[in-house]
Design goal:
The complex is a heterodimer of chains A (81) and B (578). In chain A, 80% of the residues lie in helices and 5% in strands. Chain A has 81 residues and is mainly alpha-helical. Chain B has 578 residues and is mainly alpha-helical. In chain B, strands 1-2 form a two-stranded antiparallel sheet. The model of chain B is unreliable at 573-578 (pLDDT under 50). The chains are: A mainly alpha (81), B mainly alpha (578). Chains A and B meet through helix 1, strand 2 and helix 3 of A and helix 5, helix 10, helix 11 and helix 13 of B. Chain B: Keywords: Membrane, Symport, Transmembrane, Transmembrane helix, Transport.
Chain lengths: 81, 578
């Protein structure tokens, strides 16, 4: 039972880190040139991801992960306190 | 000028008074309060404290200036210094909090059932934290001498005294509440000038949006497009596309991310909250508070560069007459951080990328944030606020680092290894003495900065990234990881990184001893020494898993311990019943 709690946690971490990698290393660094052809107001999109978008995504990811983990703790009845 | 000095004394004096009051109110009575604030900090409070702990003089003063001159290349700092919190929130903080110990070396010692591992961790921690603290002490000295016109040395003594009072008295508890106040001071001081400047340039009060807006001069041109045009006309690299090189940016960003996640003074803050759930939440709040500054910084950088270029050359070919230069130009010339040389003798200022013709022979990047309010003609109270904010950023980080050092020495070395029978009372006394010695030592290093100070920040992140981060990751995610394998990995990662930094920057940074030279052609895959921590981390992981294959899995009671800290509920020796 505790193994599958851990496995579900690992799956969540994997999803989050995949997004973490794509927005920063992907959109902000590796794909920056093609993305820069697209504009977001005065921002080139690749530049925006590197200096703004990736940071907003990081914040969103942590809150989403925290929320999902709280549900998971309840589901497996492993909450602390 | 007198009005400005008065305001600055009020702002700095007022905030220092506040820190003293908090220190007295939140003084620590037990080791649990001294090391972990008694485990009673709420996630929101902890998030703010982490923000102040993390954002140092470098974040507050230097980062926007770096971005101003690197343009897109500066993104490595923005992504690198925020992305690490995702790793902390998901891969490290919750499990280390569950394990419920006071320090990072203690966790490593328990998980790898080895005193050697614990001592290796203590050594990494001390080197990383001491190198980091030199920068904070210098920041305090510079801020005082620039804004309050006292000498650098005097400024440093005042700073040392303030930290001494609240850190030794309150330990983690005092530091936490002071850091919350310091966060409020520093974020206010950072954003208010940014809002004013964004409003002036683009008509949009939100700097993050202003950076993507059109200029308020009625031209309808986007600020970033105009900036690109202006800098490339003068021969500089285009702002929004100037890169440090693909591999370098990738490796640098990764090193800063995993280095952030491995810095002990940050991890320690997660031991102050009451539960695993609260540890995850604090990481989220921490990143919100950090992102407030980190998403404003690129706007500050770009707008400062824009204002600087615009002041010197308002329209192509119409250069500023040196005799008519603005007051801030004169002020910073006095400090030597801004230097003009009329090479062609026309009495005008030419600022170009061509070294032969460039007359702005020195533009120190650190002045961008500090000079910004005066360049934008903001009122004196805003400038006074920036002084208090810079000091808050430097002092809060210094306090966190001092606590990490003193707990490593008193808790891990003295209590953990040398004198296990020490009573709680004498341990508390020992921590305070060690902290006092650390403050004196840090002050000494601030007064006599070693010639290699600038290069050592690379070492701090390199050490955290190549030794501490991989050890923690393997300790949590690989149940079988044994002590021999982990220690071999740590030493290999550490060794490779130090060797690389030393061979390019000199052994212990002594000039002339770099056997491969600092030259770019000798960089491995074009990776600079600053960015090498990520390669060191890879070596660490590889060596550890190879040794693990040869030595067999960790004993079963250790594997049970790993199962225990992977789940939030259940019994564990918590920080509170020590």
């Amino acid at each position: 039972m505790e193994t599958s709690y851990w496995q579900e946690n690992l799956r969540l971490i994997f999803i989050c880190l995949a997004i973490w990698f794509v927005v920063s290393f992907g959109f902000g660094l590796l794909l920056v040139e093609p993305l820069n052809a697209i504009r977001l107001g005065g921002y080139k999109l690749g530049f925006w991801f590197a200096q703004q978008g990736s940071i907003y995504t990081f914040v969103g990811l942590i809150f989403w992960y925290t929320h999902k983990m709280n549900q998971l703790d309840k589901k497996y009845n492993v909450e602390d306190q | 000028m007198d009005e400005l000095r008065l305001y600055t004394w009020i702002a700095v004096g007022g905030t220092f008074g506040l820190y003293f009051f908090i220190a007295w109110w939140a003084r620590a009575g037990s080791t649990s309060e001294f090391y972990a604030a008694g485990g009673g900090i709420t996630p929101l409070q902890n998030g703010m404290a982490i923000g102040a702990d993390w954002m140092s003089a470098a974040s507050f003063i230097s980062m926007a200036g770096l971005i101003a001159f690197l343009g897109y290349g500066g993104s490595v700092f923005l992504m690198g210094w925020t992305g690490g919190y995702v790793l902390l929130a998901m891969c490290l903080a919750p499990y280390m909090r569950k394990h419920g110990k006071f320090t990072v070396p203690e966790f490593i010692g328990d998980r790898f059932y080895s005193r050697t591992a614990r001592i290796v961790a203590v050594v990494c921690l001390i080197i990383a934290s001491v190198t980091y603290i030199i920068g904070q002490m210098k920041g305090v000295g510079v801020a005082f001498s620039r804004f309050l016109e006292v000498s650098y040395d005097m400024g440093l003594y005042i700073g040392m005294f303030v930290v001494f009072v609240y850190a030794t008295l309150g330990g983690m508890k005092g530091i936490t509440y002071t850091q919350i106040a310091q966060y409020v001071v520093l974020i206010t001081a950072y954003t208010i000038p940014a809002i004013f400047i964004s409003l002036q340039l683009t008509g949009n009060p939100i700097p993050q949006l202003g950076l993507g807006s059109t200029l308020a001069d009625g031209s309808g041109v986007y600020l970033l497009d105009k900036l690109d045009m202006v800098v490339s006309d003068l021969g500089f690299k285009e702002y929004t596309t100037s890169t440090l090189g693909g591999v370098e940016m990738f490796a640098y960003t990764m090193s800063l991310m995993i280095g952030t996640a491995g810095l002990p003074h940050v991890i320690m803050r997660f031991f102050t909250v009451p539960s695993v759930k609260a540890a995850r939440q604090s990481a989220g709040y921490a990143l919100v508070f950090i992102a407030l500054l980190y998403t404003v910084a690129p706007a500050v950088g770009a707008m400062a560069r824009f204002n600087l270029m615009n002041t010197i050359e308002p329209a192509a070919g119409q250069n500023l007459e040196y005799a008519e230069r603005p007051q801030w130009f004169k002020d910073w010339e006095k400090t030597g951080l801004l230097k003009f040389e009329d090479k062609n003798g026309d009495g005008k200022v030419q600022y170009t990328a061509d070294a032969e013709k460039n007359e702005m022979v020195k533009v120190d990047r650190d002045i961008m944030v500090l000079a910004n309010p005066s360049i934008a003609n903001l009122p004196n109270w805003v400038i006074a606020l920036v002084a208090a904010g810079g000091l808050a950023a430097a002092l809060s980080t210094a306090a966190g680092l001092l606590l990490a050092i003193s707990s490593a020495v008193s808790h891990d070395l003295m209590k953990g290894v040398l004198m296990p029978d020490m009573s709680e009372k004498s341990e508390l006394r020992a921590s305070r003495i060690v902290m006092t010695i650390s403050i004196l030592f840090a002050g000494y290093l601030g007064l006599n900065p070693p010639g290699f100070a600038a290069g050592t920040v690379a070492l701090a992140f390199g050490l955290a990234a190549s030794s501490i981060f991989p050890a923690l990751m393997m300790g949590i995610f690989s149940k079988k990881m044994n002590s021999t394998a982990a220690i071999s990995g740590m030493c290999a990662g550490l060794g490779v990184t130090m060797l690389y930094v030393f061979q390019h920057k000199g052994i212990m940074f002594i000039p002339g001893t770099s056997f491969l030279g600092g030259m770019e052609p000798n960089w491995f895959l074009g990776i600079s020494p600053n960015a090498f921590g990520s390669v060191g981390a890879l070596v660490n992981f590889a060596v550890a898993f190879i040794v693990l294959k040869a030595t067999g899995p960790a004993p079963s009671h250790i594997q049970d311990m790993v199962d225990n800290f992977r789940t939030p509920h259940g019994e564990v020796a918590t920080a509170h019943d020590h």
